[in-house]
Amino acid sequence: MTTPNKDFIYHIGTVGTPWGEAEKKQWLSEQQIKRSYADEVVAPLRKYLPDTAELVSYGALDYRSFDLPLYPLFAVRSKNWQADQPIVLVTGGVHGYETSGVQGALQFIKEEFSRYSEQVNLLVLPCISPWGYESINRWNPKAVDPNRSFGAESQSDEATLAMNFVRQHAGEILVHTDLHETTDSDNSEFRPAKAARDGNVNHNWNIPDGFYLVGDTDKPEAGFQRAIIEAVQKVTHIAEADENGCLIGEKLAQFGVVNYPKRSLGLCGGMTDAKFVTTTEVYPDSPKASPEQCNAAQVAVICAAVDYALG
Length: 311
Description:
Largest sheet: 8 strands, mixed
Radius of gyration: 19 Å
Keywords: Hydrolase, Metal-binding, Zinc
CATH architecture: 3-Layer(aba) Sandwich
Order of helices and strands: HHEEEHHEHHEHEHEEEHEH
Distance between the termini: 35 Å
Pfam families: AstE_AspA_cat
Number of strands: 10
Oligomer: single chain
CATH topology: Aminopeptidase
Number of domains: 1
Structural class: alpha/beta
CATH superfamily: Zn peptidases
Shape: globular
Helix content: 25-40%
């Protein structure tokens, strides 16, 4: 667990004044491409696509006005889609910098997709924010957080394209697992940047050492969350609450689980009416967790979620 520096002031903008276009342009100018979406996401999708799946293009992110590429967006869908079967939705890379969300989704496609494809209709969007993946960033190039944009007033093309695509699939969405991480950079970079952008004062929180889940306040499904925690415990350690009984400033709902009102916050996990919803939070900066464990934890979540929902 890392201790927050509550007095950290971001280097762009004036304290108490929201960013204008000049500050956003400065911020974007400082971002750098650090890895390849084409090589690390698209190529493995094509290489390891199982026979039971089809690769679907659901649009493209056009950031050429920012001197950035056109990013094609891909989903993996059950080839034998059956209208009478429930849908399991998996989303990764809403925050592109959260690596195991993307790589865990890819590993699920490679290793476990076929095992479940006869029981449910699977729909996996492994990397919703490809520029965020390449630049290791929480926001998109417009300094917008896609994971606060899954609503009617979305300002994120990433979120809008994902929502539109998911809505094209008629049927009951039974399960939605949204794959995320909590990192030390949340405190060192992203929360201070958000406060500066919004003209607020930054208040960091302790970063928990370990895995935890964020359920939905409106449909917490405690047994479902508990089953996932028990599965993940076999892969990596679960975060303990802080001295106030909290994780990331929220009171525990149960061991390893806090709840957020997903729909009202515009979170990806709130974009459907799925009965069983959870957001993963892996801690890749822990000295007790390897990248392989982080990816495996994400896979364990998806499998446990489907197993529980199917009873």
